Amino acid sequence: MKNIKLPLLILFILFVKISEALAQKVTASSSEDWSNKPVKVTPAQNGAPPSDAIVLFTDKKDLTKWEHPDGSPVKWQVKDNELVAERKTGNIRTKQAFGSVQLHVEWKTPDPKEDQGTNRGNSGVFLMDLYELQIYESYSDEHPIYYNGMAGSVYKQYVPLVNPTTPPQTWQTFDIVFNAPEFNPDKSLKKPAYMTVFLNNVLILNQVEIKGPMKYEGKTEYTYHASKLPIRLQEHGSRVSFRNIWVREL
After folding, report:
1. From start to end of the chain, where are the E strands?
2. How far is the C-alpha of 245 from the C-alpha of 250, rounded, in Å?
3. How far apart are CA 157 and CA 78, in angstroms?
4. CA geometry: angle 54, 228, 153, nearest 5 deg
5. What integer pLDDT is reported at residue 5 of this predicted model?
């Protein structure tokens, strides 16, 4: 009797193993995902933003989505369909707050004769009002600035991989992917911010880890802040122009 039970037990174990193997057999259809159909978006064409973008400024004189930090109306000027940072008027920022985004900004530095020394076409794009991507006239070497302060740098943190800037008074383009930082319930940092940037369609920053808010002197570090904050454009004494600014929330 014992001799009969042992072969039966072995056969049963083999049957179970084969059944499990058949149940786990991978087929083409088992790896197909039909759970979440992507929304159709009309891509950016001929200078127009994609259909799901929030347009912040185009070629119109509509500045209702912007304000100065004190809440006052924008004193920058719209000339020839360009938004120009007028000297001594101060920074502007969006009324709407944003976290992680795809941001498109076109900018142009003025005639170098307007600026002096190391303030040539000086401006910046601040993600979440804190993390600066530098704008500067970096085509000429006549008045160079430190490399982590040139166009396309995360100011005082990261030097761009290459310098694809074009001459002054020509339009240039930032395409930015920004992942906002995350904080724990106790307000300690859970995850830092990251930034990827294309300047004039050339990759210049590849998923760099942001060390903290922009700081001119000393070491920067994170402090707790809201999950969404405005986008800021800097007025730094140079008449830098902007156009075709749009954002997609991620």
Report:
1. 54-57, 66-67, 77-79, 82-84, 92-94, 101-108, 123-127, 131-135, 172-179, 182-183, 189-191, 194-199, 202-209, 232-233, 241-249
2. 16
3. 32
4. 80
5. 63
Cβ-based neighbour number of residue 174 at 10 Å:
20
Give the contacts of 18 (CB within 8 A, at least 6 positions apart): none
pLDDT (tens digit per residue) in 219-249 = 999 999 999 999 999 999 999 999 999 999 9
Q: How confident is the model at residue 4 (pLDDT cuts 50, 70, 90)?
A: low
Take residue 122 and report the two structure tokens written for it: 């000086």
The 3-state DSSP class for residue 143 equals coil
The pTM of the full predicted model, rounded to 2 decimals, is 0.87
Q: Beta strand 241-249 with 66-67: parallel, antiparallel or unpaired?
A: unpaired
Tell the burial category of 128 from Cβ atoms under 10 Å away from its Cβ (0-12, 13-18, 19+).
Answer: buried
Q: What is the pLDDT of residues 48-69, one digit of tens each?
A: 899 999 999 986 778 999 999 9
Q: Distance between CA atoms of 91 and 178, rounded to whole angstroms?
A: 21
For residue 41, which amino acid is it?
V
Structure confidence at residue 109 (pLDDT): 97
Percent composition of the chain: helix, strand, coil (DSSP 3-state, to 5)? 10, 30, 55
Phi, psi of 7 (to 5 degrees): -60, -35
18-47 per-position pLDDT tens digit: 777 666 667 778 788 999 999 999 998 887
Q: Tokens 């003025």 label which residue?
A: 110
